[in-house]
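User: Show me sequence and structure for the first protein, then do the same for the second.

Assistant: Starting with the first protein.
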Amino acid sequence: MAARAPDQVTGAPAPAGPVAAPLPDAAGHGTRAPRVAAHSCLHPTASPSGAHVAFICDREGVPQLWTASADDTAPRALDTGPDPVREVSWSPDGRWIAYTTAPGGSEHTRVLCVRPDGTGRRILAGADPGQSAHLGAWARDGSAVALTVTESGAGNHGGIAARSGTGRNGGTTGNDTEDTPPARARATGRMPPDTVVDGLPRTWPREGVGAEGYPLRRRLTAYLVDPDGLAAAALLTTEAHASSLRVCDLTPDGRLALVRRGPRGRREAVVLETASRETRSVFPVADGDPWIGGFTDNGGVVWLRSDADREFAALCAARLRPDGSCAEFTPVIAREGAGLELLHVPHGENPAALVWNVRGCSEFELATLRSEPSDAVPPREEAPAARRFELRTPDGGLPARPAVLRDEPDVPPPTAAPSPSPLPSPLPVSLPHEVVTRLAEAGPGAYLVGLSGSQRSPGVWRVQAAGTAVRTGWSARDDALAGPGSRPVRPELLELSARDGLALSGWYHRAPERADDRPGPCVVHLHGGPESQERPVYASMYHELLARGIDVFAPNVRGSSGFGKSFVDADLGAGRFAAIDDVADCAAHVVLRGLADPAGLAVMGHSYGGYLTLASLVWHPEVFRTGVTVCGMSSFATFFAGTEPWIAESAAVKYGHPEHDRELLHALSPLTRFDALRVPFLAVHGEHDTNVPADESRQAVRAARDRGIPAELLVLREEGHDFQRAANRRLFRARAADWIERHLSS
C-alpha cells in the first residue's frame, strides 16, 4: 500500500489554522485548480425601515457578518474575525444587530451584538468554555433579545433520560435561589460586572450555572438579555433533558412568549406567560425551520406552521384567551401533497410570507392574515389549566412520532370562539430559482428572500408586495458559477419504487460531456438528517465530480422530509434496515435506466448520509466500488456517548434510546458488520465536530485496516460538523473527488 500523509491516515493534528493548500493524495495525484465559484449571501435581516440589510457572506473565504444598503453593490464587513457566522437578526429599534458565531468552527456557539456602524461589539452569551448560545426573537421594542444557553457534556449517553422519567412536556419552570447570578442581578437592579473574553466585553449568563443552580450541561435555558448590558437578564424558562428550545416571538407588551421545544418528530410550540413563566398552551408543530410562527400585534392569535393530525404542515391559527390559554386551534391554509416549510408572521401591516415545498421546489406566496381581537373570547373567572394538545396513538401511548390529535382528558373543553376571518387568496410570487432558504421583512410592503438553485449559489432577492422579485446588488450574479466553457447542470427528477413498494425519488446530475445513451461512473450521494431533503440546489461537490465525468444521483430515501409524516417515520426503529436497502435500490434503478455503469458505482454522504454510506458498504458490499463518509456515525453506542446532550435527546426519538433500544442500535451500527466490508473508503471529519465526534471516523478507519481493507482519514482543521472555510472546502472536494475518480477507474 502506498504511503500516506500522517494526518490523513490517523487523524493526528495537522499544522494550526485552516489548511491553506490542497495536499497530494496517497498515489501522488495532484489536485486540480479550484473552479470558479461565486460567493454566497445568506440569512438576510433588514433594518426597521428596510433601507439597510445585514447578512452572512463568504466572499472572504469564511461566512462573516456584512451590511449594505438594500441595493448597494459595495457592502462592508461588520465582523472580519475568523469564526464562521451562522445567524443574524436586526433589532426592531434599529440599534443593534445580534448574530451567532462558531469559534473555531465548533458546535459551541456564541451570540454577539454590534451596532450597525460596527462599534460596540460585545458577547451576549456563550463565552464560557464548552457553553453554547443560540439566538432567539427580539422584544418588539428592541430592549432585549431572547437567547438560549446551554453547556456541553459527554458520557452517560449524553444525558439521555429514561422514557419513563420525562414526559412529552417534561420541562420544568425554575425559580431563582438567592445566590444565583440572575437573582443577585434582580436584587441589585444591575448586571454583574462585565468581564472580557477575546478582547470583547461579555454580559451575563456566565459560570455555567442556570436557574436553581442546575448545571447548564443537562439543561437548556432561555433568557431575555439587554444588549446594552444595563438591565438584568430575565429568565424565561429552563428545561432539563431538553433537545431544543428557541424563543420564536413575544407579544408587543412582552406578556407572552412563543417557544419552540421538543425532539425531532415531536416539536411543540409553547405559549408561555413571561411574568410567571407558566405554560399556557402547547401545540404540535412541524419539524424543519425552527421559526415556527408568531403572534398577531394584539396578541390574540398565534399563527403556526403545524402538521397536527395531518401529513403535511399547514398554516394554523391558535386563538388565545387573554391569559394565553387556547380557545381554538384551526388549520387555515393547507395544500394537498405539499407542506408549509417557511412562515413569517409580520409585525405591522405587511402581508405574511408563506413558502410551500412542492416536490422539492419552493412556491412563495404573500397572504393577508386576519383575526378577530382577543377579547372576542369571554374571559374566565379563574385562569384555566394549560390547554395542551397531545398527539397520541389510539391506545393512548406516546409514539416516537405522534399520530392523532386530541385534548388531554383532564383539561375542560374551551369556550367556543369564532374562527379567524376567511383569508383572501394568497398572492403567488414568481421566483427565478428553485428553493427559498430564508424570509425577512424589509420595510413596508417588502420582503428579503434567500434563494438557492441548481444554476446559482445562494443569494438574496427583494420582493415587493406586488409580487416582483429583484436580485440585490451585493448577491453574486446568476452566471458567476460558470467556469471556462462550463455551466452548472440542471438535474432531472427520477422516480422509482423500493423493494417493498414504497415510492422514492431523487435528482440525477449527468456529466455534461457524456452522450445520453452512454452509461458512466456514478456517485450515489446521501443527504444528512435523516429528515433533510435533497433538492435542486447548486452543490460544489457535485460540480467537482461532474467536471471529472462522474454522474451524481442524490436520492431521498425513507426518512427524508418533504413527502409527509408517514414517509419521515418510515425509517423509525427496524425501518432503518429498509432505508439502507433503499440506497441499494436507488443504485440499481440508475443502472437499469442505463444511466450508470454497474461497475462504476460509489456511495457518499454527510452526517446521517455518512452513516448510510458505511451501512451501505457493509450491508450491500457487492454494489459499490468505494465510498466517502463525511462526519458519519459508525457506532450508535459511541455516538450517543460522545455527542452533545441535547443532540442525544433528540436523536433518541429518531434512532432509538441508547439503553432501551440497545440491541437494535447495536444491530444497526455499521461497525458491528465490518467483517462484511470489501471495498476501500475515505473518511472526512471536522476536528471540532461535537455533533458527530471525529472518533466515529477514526474507529471506522482503524476497523477497516485491522481487516486489511484500505481506508484513509482526512481531518479538517478549525471545522465542526459543517465545513465553512473556503480552503478546507476546496481541499475536501479535491480529496474526495480524487479518491472516487481513482477507485472507479482502477
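Switching to the second protein now.
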Amino acid sequence: MANKQQFQLHSLLTEQRHPRSFDLSTRIAADTADGLAALLSVDEDISAALQGVADDPARLAALEHASREITRALRDGHRLYFYGTGSTGRLAETIESGLWRPFWQRTAASPAMAKIEARFPGLGERVRGEITGGDRALIASLEGFEDIPEIGRLQLQDNGIRPQDLVFAVTEGGETSAVIGTALAAADQAGADARRTWFVYNNPDEVLRPFERSRRVLDDARITKIPLPTGPQAITGSTRMQATTTSLYVLGVVLEDATRALLREVLTGDELAALGFNDAGIAERLRGFATIQRTTAAAAQKLAAWTDREAASYAAGRHATYLATRALMPVFVDVTERAPTFRLSPLDAVDAVDAAERRSWIQVWTPAADGAQAWQALLHRPFHGLDKALYLPPFENGIDDPYLREAALRGLSNAGDEQQALYDLSFSDANLQRSGPQAGDTGALILLGDEAHADANRRWLQAFAAAGAEPVLVSVSARPLASDVLADVAALPRPVPVIAVTVPQRDAFELNQTIALKMLLNAHSTGVMAKRGRVVGNTMTSVQPGNLKLIGRATWLILSHVNAVLETPAWRTARGSTAPLTYAEANAVLFDAIEQRRSAPGASGLPEVELSVVAVLDALKADRPIDWNAAVTQLRAGGLSRYLAPYATATGAPGR
C-alpha cells in the first residue's frame, strides 16, 4: 500500500467493466450464442475508435508520418523493432512472425522477388518482434519481468538494435515498466532524433499522468506518441481483447502502407496487385475495420457449436487440440493467453507430460516432423532465448527492489535457448503417441487465408474422428471454403461443425483475415472459460496475482465485487447499511488468501479473488473475523456465481 502505489491501476479505462458484457457469465450459461454475441459486440468500440482516428487530422497525420519513416528506414537498410509485454509482446511477435515473414515467404515464389532483392537486399529480415522475456515468454509470461524497466533496455541491446533503427514500444495500459524502459532506452540511444521512437498505448493521457513512469514518456519530446484508447474490455482488464486488437490492426496497416510505398519504387502496379497490395490508404483501411467486425460478429451463432463442444470436453475431464499452419501464430497466441487470464496450466512441456496426468487442457500442433521444425513454423526464424551472461549481472546488481530482483532471477532461469526443446508443437508420431486424441476430446482445424488443404489436415481430421474425438473446422479467408475441404469433412462418420468466415477484402499481409480470426478466437476462448465458471459477470475472478499489476487487479476485483453486493437492495434489506470495503482492506485480505492457497490443503486450487470475496462477505454477514475454512466450504459448494446470485439486481448483476 505504501510502496507500490504506482501499480494500483484500477483508474485506467482498460480496467473498467464494460456495460455490454456486464452479465456475461449468466447470459452465456443460458444461451451460448447470446453470450458470444455480447462479447463480439464490444469490438464495435474498436470500429468507433478507428473511425475517430481516421477523422482526426492530427492522429491520422501521426500514422502517415510513421508510415513514411518506416519506408525511409527500410530504404536506408535499417530495421524495425516492435516490443511489448504479455499480450502486446505476442502482438509484436505476430507482426514479425505472423505478418511480415509469411508475406516474404509467399513473395519469394513471385517473379517480382528478383527485382525487390536487387534493390533492397535482405528486406525480409528487417523486422523484429520481441516479447518481454524472449521467445520462452510466448508460452507463459516470466514472473516479475514486466515490472522491470531495465529489461527493456537489455533486450534492445540483445537484439542488436542500432540508433538508426525504428522502435515501436507497445503497451496496452500505457504504464508497463519494461515497455517504458524500451522507449526511454531507444530515445537515449537516438539522441534528439524524434523520428526514431514510437510509443503505442490504449488509455487516455489524462488517466496515465498520475503514474510517474508514464509521465516520463508522455513528456519526452524525443518519443512520438500514438494513443489508441478504445474503452473498457469485454472481460474486465483482459487487454488481450479490444486493446491489443486495435494496436495490432493499426500497426499492421501502417507497416503494410509503408511496404507498399517502398515496393512501388521497383514494381509496377500489376506486380504490386499480384502480391496483394491495393490502393487503400491508412484512413480507408481504418474505416474498413467496421466491415471486418460486422462479418466476424455475424458468426456468433455458428461459433456457439464449437464453444459448447469444447466446454463440454473440459467438463468431462477431456482435452482440446488445435491444428494450424498459416493460422499457427494467432492460434498459438490465443491459447497461451488463456493461462494467465483464466488461471489455467500453461502448455505442457514434453519432459513433464504424462498422458494420464496432463495439466494443460489444450495443445497446439502444426504439421512438422518434430519440435524444432514446429518452432520454425511458428517463428519463421531461429528461437531466441535470453543469455544469462548478458542479463544476470544487471539483474543481480541493478535491481534495488528485493521482490523484483528475486522474481527476475527466477524468471531468468527459465528463459534461455534450452527452453525450445521443452515444448513440442508438432503433429508428429511422437506427439500422437504421447498425447493423441481420445474419445470425448475436441479438435479444431484452423485454416487462414488462401491456405491449400494439405494431406496433413486430412490425416488429422481422420485421426480425431477415428479416436471418437469431436473435430471442428474453422476457416477465415477471402474466398469460400474449397470443395475438397468440404468433401473431407462430409466423409467423416459424424457431422462436423464448420465455422467459415469470408473476409472479402484482400491485403498483402493477410492482416484483415488475421484480425478476424483473432476476434473469433478471443470470443470463443473467453466463452469457453465463462461456461466453465472462470468468469463472474464479466470479470476474470480466476486471475493469478503473479506480478504487481495483477496483484493490483486482483485487489480491485475483490473490492468491486464486495462493494457491489453491499450496495444491493437484498443486502441493505437484510443487514442495513454497511461501510464499504477499502482498497487497503481488500489488499490485506488478498495476501492472506495467497498464503491460504499455498499452505491450507483445502484452499489449494481455489482462486484468491473468489476466496477473498466469499470470506469477506461471510465475515460481514456474521459480524466476525474471516473464517477461511468456511469460505473454502462455501466456494467449493457452488462457486462464486452461485454465492452472489441472491444479490443480483433486476438488471442481472450486483451493483449494475
